[in-house]
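Field reference: sequence -> structure
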Amino acid sequence: MLSSVTDFSSSPRGKWVVVGLWLLFAAIIVPVSPRLDEVVSNEASQFLPPGAESSEAETLQAAEFPSDGVPAILVFRNPAGLSEADRAEARRVNDLLLSDAAPDTIDGVVSVFTRPEAAASLVSADGTTMTIVANVTGEPSGEPYLETIAWIRDQTGDLGELRVAVSGPGGILADFIEVFEGIDGFLLLVTGILVLVLLVLIYRSPVVALVPLLSVGWVFAIAGALGALLAERVGLPVNGQSQGIMTVLLFGAGTDYCLFVSSRYREELVHAPDKHEAMRRAMRGVGEAIASSAGTVLVATLALLLATLRSTETLGPLLALAIGLMLIAALTLVPAILTILGRFSFWPFRPRYDARSNDPVIADEEAHGIWSRIAGIVARRPAGVLVTTVAAFLVMSLGLLDFEQTYDQITGLPAGTESREGFELLREAFPAGDLAPTNVYVVMPEGTDLFDPATLARIDQI
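Structure field:
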C-alpha cells in the first residue's frame, strides 16, 4: 500500500497530479478558514485541569458576581519614600484617567484620591509604594483593550527617583498577548532561516534547501487553516502556545523527513539513469522509515490527551493534525517536487549516473566521507559506540540535578517587560497575601439568611 502511493507520486504523470491536488486542497481550505490566532483562547479554563476547584470558583464568580473589565494596576514606587512631588504625579495620572481625554474603555478608578478610606490597601506600610487601579473593559485580546493599556503607559513614566509601571492582571495580560503575537512570527522566521542555512551547508545547493521550506510552509498553512476551522466549527481547543509549538514541531519533523527523501534520492540518481526510477527506489527505501518516525510522533502527540493539565492536553489534537499532514506530504508532495526538479535539485553539484556504482565491490571501494567513516565505526564496534554515547548523554543531563520547577507565571514574561517590572515593585513593598489574595466562595443552601448570627459564625470558622 505504502509503495503504491510513493510509486505514483514519483511517476511521470503522478508527480503532476500530486502537486495539483495539494494546490487544490490549499486553495479550497485556506481562503475559507479563519487564521489560527483568531480562534485562540487564553482563558483560565484552557489551562487548568477539568474539574479544578479554581475553575469552578471562576465559573461561580462569573455567575454570581459578574464584572465587566480587567484591573490594570499602576504602581508608583520611590525606595526613599513617596514625596509630595511623587504624590502630585500620582494625582495627575489619577485625574487624567478620570478625565474626558481618557479612553471610554476605562470604567472606574480606585485610588487614595477617589477612595481615601482604602488607603491602607493602596499604599504600602513603609510609605514607599502607591497603587492606582483602573478597570479596563473589553475583550483582553481585542484592539480597544490593548490600545487602552498602551495609552495608560504613554501617560506615565519614571520621574527622578519615582518609578512608575502598569502591571496587575490588565498589564500582564496585555504583555502576554504581545509576547505570544510576536513570538509566532519570530519563531517562524528564525526556524526557517536556521533550516535554510543548515541545508545549504549540508547539500551545498540552494535548490534542494528550499524544498523542505516549501513543503513545510505548505503544510503549515494547511494545518493552521484546518486547525482554525475545526476550532470554529467543532470547538477544537486552541490556546496561545499552540501555534508556536506547531511551528517548531513541523519544521523539525518536516525537515527530517525531507532529508530522508533527498539524501536517498541523491544516492539513487547515481545508480539510476532515470529520475523517476531513482525516486521510486529512494521512496521504497525510506518510505517505511518516514512512516515509522511520523507514527511515533503521532502516538506521542495523541498521548498528550491523557495529560491532566488542560493546556498540555489541548496541544494533542492540533499537533497530531500537523504531523499527520506532514507525513502525507513527505510520502507524496516531497517526492513529487524533487522528481519534477530531477538532478537540478542538487545544482550546482548535480549527481551524475554512474553504471559502475551498481557493482557492490566498486561501490564499497569508493565509499568515502565523514558519514561513511562514522557508519563504519558504528558497524565495527556497536557496543563501544553505545556505551560512549550513553555516557555522553548522562554527562550532559547532569544539569537536571539543579533544576527547580517554578509556577510563577510572571517569570514567563521577558525581563524588562513593564508588567513584570511593576509586579517586582509590588513584591518589594507589599506582603504576598496582599498581592494575590485567595478568594473563598461559600455557597449556602437556598433560603439561608446570610446575616443570621449562626450563619455568620459558621462563615467565620472557615
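Note: The first helix runs from residue 2 to 9.
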